[in-house]
Design brief:
By secondary structure, this protein is an alpha/beta fold. Helix content is 41%, strand content 18%. It contains twelve helices and ten strands. Strands 1, 2, 3, 4, 5, 6, 7, 8, 9 and 10 form a ten-stranded mixed sheet that branches. Helix 7 packs parallel to helix 8, helix 8 runs parallel beside helix 10 and helix 9 runs antiparallel to helix 10. It is globular, with a radius of gyration of 20 Å.
Length: 320
């Protein structure tokens, strides 16, 4: 059987980690390498990681200086030896058939995808990916423009060679979005199952949900992600350049409108728009629409917002 490495970043999740790890130990697929990456957690998590490693030979505890979730996942990737890679967050849990079903789903594809539950104290709300089946990498990338769940990290299994030397972008408020599309670009095809097997816990104290005074940092991350994604996709998959350019401009216009109090983000949005004027004017859209794109950012002033949470840290939070 194939060895599957499951990478779990651990920080401040003492209350939830036992449920997470126990759900991994109960997997019907037994050939596992469960890598618990303690990111210098200030609670009892480091001792919990060591305890699980001592109890089950399939568990490895990795301790590192604090560097954030992306840094922890990168440490896990560097330590992983499995044929396949999965990511599970330390405050989430999975169905006993999570790994086995993903392996059945992926087959001869490079990435396997399943549905998931959005879990609160009162209910588990299922979310199934659109149109299950097997898709080319290009076809799945186009779904990123309409289905927010495509960029999720943890409802997927990846062939180790498909990830290769791709690593998480560290130092951001978001990391899955910077990573997932690059791995898809490095694949030939993906296989999708609608069956929900991952439980994504929604909790008020989650890092993903505390925007508040970090609005500009969040916006800068989102601008960097949108523009970097367009550049990478247009260089490697030029047939997708136009839809991703249009999506980039649509998104940046929305950010620009509410950037009154985020001057660094304003500067980056305007600079990118000026640098891509020719490409924007080349879009296969009515001239009025193309000119409107440029007017919105190069001439119209942003209006700002009094709501610090208007912009999500990641796409799944847009629907919380």
């Amino acid at each position: 059987m194939s060895l599957v490495s499951i990478i779990v970043p651990v920080y401040g999740v003492e209350q939830y980690l036992p449920e997470c790890v126990e759900s991994l130990l109960r997997q019907t697929h037994r050939e596992l390498e469960i890598i618990l990456v303690d990111d210098a957690s200030p609670d009892n998590c480091p001792r919990l990681c060591d305890r699980y490693a001592a109890q089950d030979s399939r568990v490895r505890a990795v301790h590192k200086p604090n560097g954030g979730a992306a840094s922890a996942r990168n440490a896990g990737l560097d330590a992983a030896t499995g044929d396949y890679i999965c990511f599970v967050d330390g405050d989430d849990w999975v169905d006993p058939d999570y790994v086995n079903h993903l392996l059945d789903t992926v087959g001869d594809a490079d990435i396997g995808i399943c549905g998931f539950y959005r879990s609160t104290k009162s209910k588990n709300e299922p979310h199934a990916p659109e149109q299950p089946g097997k898709l080319s990498a290009e076809a799945y990338l186009l779904r990123f423009l309409s289905d927010w769940s495509c960029s999720l990290l943890w409802n997927k299994i990846y062939r180790r060679e498909t990830i290769g030397d791709i690593r998480m972008a560290e130092g951001h408020a978001i990391d899955d979005e910077f990573f997932t599309y690059l791995v898809v670009m490095n694949s030939k095809n993906v296989a999708i199952s609608p069956k929900p097997l991952y439980y994504y816990r929604l909790r008020g104290s989650s890092v993903m949900r505390t925007v508040d005074d970090r609005l500009e940092r969040v916006m800068l991350d989102r601008v960097e992600y949108i523009t970097t994604r367009y550049r990478n996709i247009s260089e490697k998959m030029p047939r997708l350049a136009e839809p991703f350019l249009q999506d980039a401009v649509d998104t940046l216009i929305r950010y620009w409108r509410y950037s009154k109090n985020t001057p660094k983000a304003q500067k980056q949005i305007r600079a990118w728009t000026k640098a891509h004027r020719r490409q924007i004017m080349g879009l296969k859209l009515p001239l009025k629409t193309r000119l409107s794109y440029l007017y919105q950012i190069l001439i119209k002033k942003p209006v700002g917002t009094t709501d610090p949470n208007w912009i999500p840290l990641s796409m799944e939070d847009a629907f919380d």
